[in-house]
Specification:
The structure holds 2 protein chains of 2 kinds.
Chain A: H1 4-8, H2 10-42, H3 47-61, H4 65-80, H5 87-113, H6 116-124, H7 129-144, H8 146-167, H9 172-183, H10 186-214, H11 219-222, H12 229-233
Helix pairs in contact in A: 2-3, 2-5, 2-8, 2-9, 2-10, 3-5, 4-5, 4-8, 5-7, 5-8, 6-7, 8-10, 9-10
Chain B: H1 12-16, H2 18-22, H3 25-52, H4 55-69, H5 73-88, H6 94-120, H7 123-131, H8 136-166, H9 178-189, H10 192-220
Helix pairs in contact in B: 3-4, 3-6, 4-6, 5-6, 6-8, 7-8, 8-10, 9-10
Classes of the chains: A mainly alpha, B mainly alpha.
Chain lengths: 240, 225
């Protein structure tokens, strides 16, 4: 193992880190917003809307991201009449669209996990449906969905790696492939690439753990504010 | 971006290519089965090590799990694909490169699933078993593990589905599975639109029934407390 030559290319690899962060952040934002619509469709009392939502989720979840990427990049532009689609727009768009299905399912599970008595009680005090959703159900649901959303954000970062070799978006893997080709040190180069991915995903894990503990709905624990590094680092319970 | 006036769909080449695309299906299934078969015992081992409380081994298993859970599979596929022949002189086929990289990833997830399943069995169950005179080993084997296994069944099925989809990444290092064949046909016929539509539909048709089975398993093995 000789890390000198790959490490000399670290500034070059770091350019890829920024692209990975931008692509994943864009995709997560898109997915978080579109996911709300997906959850809305899936929970709709209207049968046809529910079917559309289910169809979208099933279609996305049953197809590999690789196939979706190829399909969206090659087929969709032709259908909507573009001849040269932008790889960044379509990469972020496909990643966001894919994860919208997963985010939507997490939101839906979170909303359904809030006890129905809470909703009934709020409605009986005279709140409107939207008030109940906004003030009672959603704040409780979002707390329960922090661990799965953390996992989804990490998965988004991981799946952004596929966009590089397939579409040519210049993220970490794309840069690593250039570096391993010029230094003839693929093992060291990809170990550094793995380290760069951990540098992106580990803070996400810490943030997720922090928010999960801080917003926990536990009458005993919530009375005792705890501070210190230990809370950030120790994972609580088994997360998926 | 230049708007184009009209597109003509021509499914002739895509339909002619269906046997070629389907010739990749056995490879996809074989790859997924081999990876799952190797990962299951490995995952059980990881869960056992993490539960054993051994400090060094436990830390190693924790590090392993976090490493492969938080890095893309593609990094490891490329690492083994390039590094093993060039730097270590090991001639390895792309198929086994994919097996190696996917196994490392899947076993990390399986280890977490088994560990979570064992931890989710109430401590009262174990205490009750111990109080009837069972040894710790008996309590584990007869009371805790059977319940833990039931709880992990639907999650294992979910991992299988995501593995089935992740196998497509092996196409990037030249394993002749479905997406590889589809890209090959698309490059040769310039009919990527139709070919990628066909391969997407194949994946949908293959994975959706499996997803339905997973949903059934989740219903069937639901824990009632």
């Amino acid at each position: 193992m000789d890390f000198t030559r790959p490490l000399a290319n670290l500034p070059f690899l770091l350019q890829g880190v920024w692209i990975t962060i931008i692509v994943s952040a864009g995709a997560v934002l898109l997915a978080a917003v579109l996911g709300l619509f997906v959850a809305y469709l899936r929970l709709s009392p209207i049968g046809i809307l529910r079917k559309i939502g289910t169809g979208f989720v099933v279609g996305i979840q049953s197809t590999p991201f690789f196939a979706l990427l190829l399909w969206v990049y090659f087929v969709l532009p032709a259908v909507i009449g573009l001849s040269r689609p932008d790889i960044y727009v379509f990469g972020i768009g496909t990643l966001g669209l894919t994860y919208a299905a997963y985010f939507g399912e997490v939101y839906r599970a979170g909303i359904l996990s809030v006890a129905s008595g809470q909703r009934d009680a709020s409605l009986s005090t005279g709140m409107s449906e939207s008030q109940v959703m906004r003030r009672i159900v959603f704040p409780q649901a979002i707390r329960k969905t922090i661990p799965p959303i953390t996992s989804l954000c990490i998965s988004t970062v991981k799946d952004s790696a596929i966009i590089g070799p397939v579409l040519g978006v210049q993220e970490i893997i794309w840069h690593a492939n250039v570096v391993q080709g010029t230094t003839f040190r693929p093992a060291e180069t990809f170990i550094i690439a793995a380290g760069l991915y951990i540098a992106i995903t580990f803070p996400l894990t810490l943030l997720g753990n922090y928010l999960h503990e801080r917003w926990q709905i536990d009458p005993v624990r919530s009375g005792l504010p705890q501070f210190g590094l230990a809370r950030f680092i120790r994972p609580r319970g088994a997360r998926p | 971006m230049i708007p184009i006036a009209a597109i003509e769909f021509d499914f002739k080449y895509a339909i002619e290519g269906i046997p070629k695309i389907l010739s990749g299906l056995p490879i996809t299934i074989l790859l997924a089965v081999v990876v799952m078969g190797v990962s299951l015992p490995f995952g059980i081992l990881l869960a056992g090590v993490r539960r054993s409380g051994h400090r060094v081994l436990g830390a190693f298993a924790y590090g392993y799990t976090e490493l492969f859970r938080t890095t893309p599979i593609l990094v490891w596929i490329y690492l083994f694909f390039f590094a093993l022949p060039i730097q270590f002189g090991i001639n390895i086929s792309p198929f086994w490169v994919a097996v190696l990289a996917l196994t490392l990833n899947v076993s990390a997830f399986l280890g977490e699933i088994f560990r979570g399943a064992i931890a989710s069995v109430e401590p009262g169950q174990r205490e009750a078993a111990l109080s009837t005179g069972m040894t710790a080993r008996q309590a584990l084997r007869r009371v805790v593990l059977p319940q833990a296994f039931r709880r992990s069944v639907p999650l294992l099925a979910a991992v299988w589905i995501s593995l089935f989809k992740d196998v497509s990444l092996a196409a990037l290092v030249g394993v002749h599975e479905m997406i590889y064949e589809a890209r090959f046909i698309a490059l040769n016929t310039y009919r990527s639109i139709e070919v990628f539509t066909v391969v997407s539909i194949f994946y949908l048709a293959l994975t959706y029934p499996q997803a339905l089975i997973v949903n059934r398993l989740f219903e069937r093995y639901r824990v009632r407390d």
